[in-house]
Amino acid sequence: MRRKIIAGNWKMNKTPSETVKLINELKPLVATEDADVVFCVPAVSLTIAKEVAKGSNIEIGAQNMHFEESGAYTGEISASMLTDIGVKYVIIGHSERREYFGETDETVNKKVLKAIEHNITPIICCGETLQQREQGVTIDLIRQQVKIALLGVTADQAKNVVIAYEPIWAIGTGKVATTEQAEEVCSAIRKCIAEIYDDATAEAIRIQYGGSVNAENAAELFAQANIDGGLVGGASLKADFGKVVNYK
Ligand code: 13P
After folding, report:
1. In the chain, N or C: fewer CB atoms in 10 Å?
2. Which residue's CA is minimally distant from atom 1 of ligand 1?
3. Distances 34 to 30, 31, 37, 187, 228 between C-alpha atoms, Å
4. What is the distance between the alpha carbons of residues 60 and 45, in angstroms, rounded to a whole number?
5. Is 66 a catalytic residue?
6. How far apart are the CA of 146 and the centre of ligand 1, in A?
7. Is 0.85 topped by the overall pTM?
């Protein structure tokens, strides 16, 4: 039985002082023994978030990192900087980073490899636009994104990565994918993992759904056979996140 993983992606929201307040507010609400709970906060708040979350079940994650070890990459953050402060997760290849910051399947792959090298669990995002869904290429596209993201990743390493299926048309729109649509793609991702590696790896890997997840729809989505939790934007910034985490 795969353990659920429910992660909040705060995106570019909350200052460090607001972060302290929000984590303290959410701490009792997201307490659970049934799932891993991760707050992916802005880079500038990672250190303080780690401190405030200490002693709770909340793990802190980053929203991005660079694929090089160190060097002349102004404004970037390295894997070692994240591990130095105890960050265990990093979102890689979110559609907003692909759209606004030039991330490609290739840079996603490099970042995934670097994160794994540093024992940081990558939450690898994939997802199609509305146009691609209407063109009927969703599964082909997702398979390509997943396959390239995992190039050079061994089966043992792959067992610990998290894949987040986030249809772009469902992000921040309030237009959640139907449970059938979400389960269809998550199941296709698992099948793709079985093809790349083997059944044991496919069974172990955790696949999240993301895109307008909230307190009302979480239970049905997370009950699907191939959906192992969620990557949550808007609803992770309020008390509702407690209900998403304790969805049962
Ligand atoms: P929303 O939950 O706000 O739709 O955002 C989803 C998302 O992009 C999480 O990474």
Report:
1. N
2. 233
3. 11, 9, 9, 22, 12
4. 10
5. no
6. 19
7. yes
Contact 208, 227 (CB under 8 A): yes
CATH H-level, domain 4-245: superfamily: Aldolase class I (3.20.20.70)
Q: Domain limits of the chain?
A: 4-245
Residue owning the nearest CA to atom 7 of ligand 1: 233
pLDDT tens digit at each of 248 positions of the chain: 899 999 999 999 999 999 999 999 999 999 999 999 999 999 999 999 999 999 999 999 999 999 999 999 999 999 999 999 999 999 999 999 999 999 999 999 999 999 999 999 999 999 999 999 999 999 999 999 999 999 999 999 999 999 999 999 999 998 889 999 999 999 999 999 999 999 999 999 999 999 999 999 999 999 999 999 999 999 999 999 999 999 99
